Amino acid sequence: MPSNFRMPFRGLWRTSKPEPAPEPVDLRPQITPETSVGSSLINNAIYEAGCRVEKPGSLGATYAALAQRTDAMAWIGLYRPSVDELTSLAGQFGLHELAVEDAVLAHQRPKLERYGDTLFVVLRAARYVDAIEEVEFGELHVFIGPNFVITVRHAESPDLSVVRRRLEESPDLLARGTEAVLYAILDAVVDGYLPVVAGIAKDIDEIETQVFDGDPSVSRRIYELSREVIDFQRAAQPLIGIVDQISNGFDKYSIAEDLQQYLRDVADHVTHVNERIEEFRTLLRDILTVNATLVAQRQNEDMQKVGEASNRQAVETRKISAWAAILFAPSLVTGIYGMNFRFMPELELSWGYPVALLLMFGVSAALFVAFKKLKWL
Length: 377
Known about the structure:
With about 375 residues, the protein is of the alpha+beta class. The protein is built from eleven helices and seven strands. It has a seven-stranded mixed beta sheet with strand order 2-1-3-7-6-5-4, sandwiched between helices. α10 (about 255-335) packs antiparallel against α11 (about 350-375). The longest helix has about 80 residues, at about 255-335.
């Protein structure tokens, strides 16, 4: 994120007619500000003028620090918090019960909702695991208010410590308030999509090679990658609407041009990612069609080879049958006159032997001509 970024997000969540703050959520028995929370509080800090001034170890200490520092901002990072913890935060900061319920249940679609002077944003970070060719998604819930940022993660990604460190290295930017944190988180999530796009593109190239190499396992790989692309699209496509909702407040709240440019840059990245995802879906659909065509073609070629082999066998069978029939006639005559009977016709004839030879040759020749006409020989 550029160090010269100066424009705030202030006003993006405010409505022209502020809504009354919602009543505290009563999901579980209320936790007092002094109550210490468990290990779900993974990072917590109080910032003033863009600098970290305190690092409370509990939610109660955070509430007390904010009460003493009217111009401070709290950034509370939670990992799979309990209902009690979210109930405590809801009571302290006036979080809407529907937003808290979504944060508890998780498995929400990416969205941006406005509750009075609080924004509730749901994002889905993505990380590509090349070893297993899967896209891992991490759900992130962000509550943004005038003096607080609450991030609720339900997975290992995204790594918000990198975002926090980047902002802390730019105190002038962090001094702009909670809106700067919202932009940094949104920008980090979108930037995290780019390695996923590159990983999927690499796998599609490998699949194309497999298809034309005739790999029989490629169909399953195409289907599984198609499912990953669809899930990726469900995570990235709603971001277009989220960025548009933020951008729609530019004119209404007189947002400076610098901030608009940075938001447009994020919007361009989101658009680029979604265009690539649509390209991937089209490519995978076409590759699957080509693979099916090639498989059918190979099957046809195999069937054709089987048919040709059968034809060759039939031709050879006819030839053998024809020669067997030709040789059968002389064998029949010689077999009859070789039975050694004493009284047989023509045994005493002087021309009997030539006639027998002529008969055998004639029958064989007639059969040969007949089989030639039938193209058996």
